[in-house]
Amino acid sequence: MHAIDPLILSQTRTSFSLLVLIPILAARGGWKRMRLPRRDLLQCLVLGILGVAISNYFYYVAIQKTSVAIAIIVQYTAPVWVLLFVVARRQQRLTLQRIAAVAVAITGTALTTGMIGGKSAPHVDAYGFFAAVLASFSFAFYNVGGHQILLHHDRWRVLVWTLFSASVFWLVLNPPWRLAGSAYTLSQWTFLLAFSMISVLGAFSFYFLGLQYLEPSRAIIASCLEPVFSILLAAAVLGEGLRPVQFVGIVFVLSAIVIVQLPGRDSASKEAVVVDPIE
């Protein structure tokens, strides 16, 4: 297919998912299933724009300008940013284990993007790398801001309002008449619909099903396999090469994510920060 703009990909991903999710929730519980207190509703609307919409867009820009491997690895440093934030807010203590996780993640990102690794290191598009970093910050913001809401409200209720906010945001930036005039083919619109169902509604359905059997800390460690699968699929389907030094960087970043999630000596204090990707 011809190229699809990252904005269109981000816009249709949230909008199509919202159009399918609202009737499902309405049939199961009506308006009461979707209602939120005003303060929480406002927070969901902010998360939808600064979290879901911005994270999605810059993530796809990073893929377009660099590669799947670089984009997803940089984005998956988001748990490190979350950790630094909660330490600054004195919600967690800065331990040797957490310092090691930050150092390993930064080293892994540098190896993966080719910033270090010898003369054969590939050139990385500066804008693409910057977009990946912005996606990582936005992803971290979504998880920090949404943590308290998810403690008190049904996840699907929070999801529907974040998707609503992101969809309205994109409609303002890219109105329906402009979207209709984008001249995409039927096969492209079919892909966009299928992509929305699989990557948003399908992924979340399976992840929440897993949460019924796994505690969140174990579920999030299992979800760290996503970068591995993405990079392997990109190599197999898109023909993206993976040099040995990049493989080492991937191992470093994934190790950092696991280290962050490992229980420390102060685990009894229940300092839980859920970092659940929704890119």
Describe the protein.
- The protein is mostly helical.
- The protein has one domain (6-269).
- Helix content is 74%, strand content 0%.
- The chain has helices at residues 6-29, 38-65, 68-75, 78-88, 96-113, 126-152, 155-173, 176-180, 186-211, 216-223, 225-238, 244-261.
- α1 runs antiparallel to α2 (38-65), α3 (68-75) packs antiparallel against α11 (225-238) and α5 (96-113) packs antiparallel against α12.
- 36% of the residues are buried.
- Residues 268-279 have low confidence and may be disordered.
Helical residues, percent: over 70%
Number of domains: 1
Strand proportion: under 5%
**How can the largest sheet be summarized?**
none
**Structural class category:** mainly alpha
Round the mean pLDDT to the nearest integer and report it.
Answer: 78
User: What is the strand tally?
Assistant: 0
Principal-axis shape: globular
**CA distance, first residue to last residue:** 22 Å
Poorly predicted parts: 268-279
C-alpha Rg (nearest Å): 19 Å
| Total count of helical runs of at least 4 residues | 12
Sequence of secondary-structure elements:
HHHHHHHHHHHH
